[in-house]
Write a structure and sequence with these properties.
The chain is mainly α and 306 residues long. 80% of the residues lie in helices and 0% in strands. The protein has a domain at 9-106 and 160-273.
């Protein structure tokens, strides 16, 4: 069930840091794509991040799981939480702005609520959740522009690819609840990234060829950022904030990531979004706030006092 705690100043600061890191990750992926193909970009991201997280697991002295089923669960988690969404979103960013990608990425929470209600016995679809999901999907539809889907050009397909990536993220969340409960989160993250590396490295090598060792400093910096900071370090920070703030408060990161990505894309890549994208994000943000529960409780209190 969703947990919500009172947040300390330190928790707020680390939540804001996480939002900045993930907001900048969209820009780093876009810079990497200027020189590296999408599958290879993802392979770099998951492989180097996995190495760093195994170092963290070793430093923390965490015992490795002995049951083969756990390692199989890591592989499936790597497929749904890394390989599929990272690939779909990287390809999508070739054809749409990084800021728009971050807006559509925020719909992960909507699909998460829906899949959890369908597949998890302790996560029922309440009235509040239904309202939040409907508002959120209205926002996604507004940001994409349903009229644009009639032509199904590359831009429309790229937006649908990003949304499909968020469905994969949501499926990964349900899978983790069912199969990885009780595993230390740092170990689960390292195992997951190892699983996605086992998928992405041979796939990228087969379809895009051997990775080049002659990359520009900008590309190397982008790869280093998205692997070391935006993946390995961000996972460690994510679990730290989760422990301090609870899963309910952690949803606020989703609202903070998109503005960071939009501002960085406009500043460093001269990206300009359609006004509909901002309107869609406003609706999506409202839906996420309803799911978070704060607005819903304020509205209920106001109605009871009226």
């Amino acid at each position: 069930m969703t947990q919500q705690k009172d947040m300390s100043p330190r928790a707020w600061a680390e939540l804001a840091l996480l939002a900045l890191i993930w907001g900048a990750s969209f820009l780093s992926v876009r810079y990497a794509l200027d020189e590296v193909a999408p599958l290879t970009t993802v392979a770099h991201r998951v492989f180097w991040a996995a190495l760093i997280l195994w170092g963290a697991v070793w430093a923390m002295g965490l015992p490795l799981p002995r049951r083969p089923g756990v390692w199989g669960a890591f592989l499936v988690m790597g497929l749904f939480n890394n390989a599929i969404p990272f690939t779909l979103m990287a390809w999508g960013q070739l054809h749409i702005e990084s800021g728009l990608t971050s807006i559509l990425n925020a719909s992960t929470a909507l699909f998460g609520v829906m899949l959890a209600a369908l597949l998890l016995a302790d996560e029922r679809m309440t009235q509040r959740k239904a309202v939040g999901v409907l508002l959120g999907f209205a926002g996604v539809a507004t940001a994409i522009g349903l009229d644009n889907l009639r032509s199904l050009d590359l831009r429309s397909l790229a937006q649908l690819a990003v949304v499909a990536g968020t469905v994969s993220y949501a499926a990964a969340g349900v899978w983790a609840r069912k199969t990885l409960a009780g595993q230390p989160p740092q170990l689960a993250a390292a195992g997951m990234l190892t699983g996605s590396s086992l998928i992405m490295i041979p796939l990228a090598w087969t379809l895009e060829g051997a990775p080049s060792a002659r990359l520009t400093p900008t590309t190397l910096l982008a790869i280093g950022y998205m692997a070391v900071i935006a993946t390995a370090f961000a996972y460690l920070l994510y679990y730290r904030v989760l422990a301090m703030a609870g899963s309910g408060n952690l949803m606020l990161v989703t609202l903070l990531v998109a503005p960071v990505a939009i501002l960085l894309g406009a500043w460093l890549r001269d990206e300009a979004l359609n006004p509909a994208a901002y309107g869609g994000f406003a609706l999506l943000g409202l839906g996420l706030l309803v799911l978070d529960g704060r607005i819903w409780r304020l509205a209920a209190r106001w109605v009871s006092q009226a």
